[in-house]
Amino acid sequence: MACIRLFTMSSSRTPPTRLSEPSQGRWQVDSGTMADLNTLPRRRYTNGPTALDHLERLSRQLGGPQIWIKRDDQLGLTQGGNKTRKLEFLIADALAQGADTLVTAGGVQSNHCRLTLSAARREGLECHLVLEEDLGSDGAPIPADAGGNPPEHTGNFLLFDLLGADSVEVHPNGSDLIARAHELAGELKAQGRNPYVISVGGSNVTGALGYVDCAQELLTQFAEVGLDVSSIVTPSGSAGMQAGLIVGLHSAGSQIPVVGINVSRSQEEQEPKIVGLVDEVASFLELPSVPRERSLGLGDYFGTGYALPSPEMVEAVRLFAQTEGILLDPVYTGKAAAGLIDLVRQGRFGTDDHVVFIHSGGVPGLYARAGAFA
């Protein structure tokens, strides 16, 4: 069975090397080995596949490969985003266990927390959020006010209010949020609730199934238009999206590589995280293991730190907006797009390549970091 290919990339600007060589039929699938998700419990929050659009003006502006975009920012639930795919499986699992309450964690501008809360509202569940304070552009924590709110009641934090979170805690940056989430779940259980804790980013085996499914959706779209895709480029943060795509493509016999642009930690820290989740997902689905030396491609483009603005991110957000009318967010897609643009400029893709960029959403966070674009 064909495997995902390895690319080693870093911000050290190694000499240009083609990320992929000309091939034929990378999108072609082996339906006999494709992961079968139909027997797993699942909720549906989106009708039909998200769009796959050709970014003609951006491609022409950069003078490199033909760039396509998978519009997962248009998924269902409040303001969309990639976590919706994960939550279709996570919420189904919670309901199967009789949960009446969700507990999850993230930053004060967490897209995952927004979408988890939105799903809870859709299902009639309670939802409690455990958050950590944000960092300013200088990397110093922005402390919450006396009421536990960040200084700017905007972006996703505003949506937490509008969606009516049952409780919101804001802790100092660097706190062990998941430990507190489980502690809170214990408190809620003592009060007679039946809580279900969802990991940060929804990035566990159950959540990653959403992107195993997305890989199959993409392969179907490629086949429908006869598109020979050279690479899929994604933000790589909590790892669930990239791991799910890798396993989904691998299970279908596809050779399309998944290039993860790191947005939150160094390659040395991120790689074991993704390898471990890839192994867990493949094992859960009873699939052949994905050889780790051939499964990952990471680039270090997170700048001075997670969620901290960088000039390259600002350029990428402006370029997508001004060539295609598409908004990116400053934390994930903006930095991933900056990585993609840098790779194009290095000559790491050929002009005959077709590269698909996954738009994972997160646009509400743009308004919370408007100062980066002043």
UniProtKB/TrEMBL annotation:
Keywords: Lyase, Pyridoxal phosphate. The active site is at S110 (nucleophile). The lineage of its organism: Bacteria, Bacillati, Actinomycetota, Actinomycetes, Micrococcales. Coiled coil: none annotated. It comes from the Bacteria. NCBIfam families: ACC_deam_rel, PRK03910.1-4. GO terms for molecular function: D-cysteine desulfhydrase activity. This is D-cysteine desulfhydrase. The keyword Iron-sulfur does not apply. One of its GO terms (biological process) is alpha-amino acid metabolic process. It comes from Brevibacterium aurantiacum. Residues 46-361 form the Tryptophan synthase beta chain-like PALP domain. It is an enzyme of class 4 (lyase). Belongs to the ACC deaminase/D-cysteine desulfhydrase family. Its EC number is 4.4.1.15.
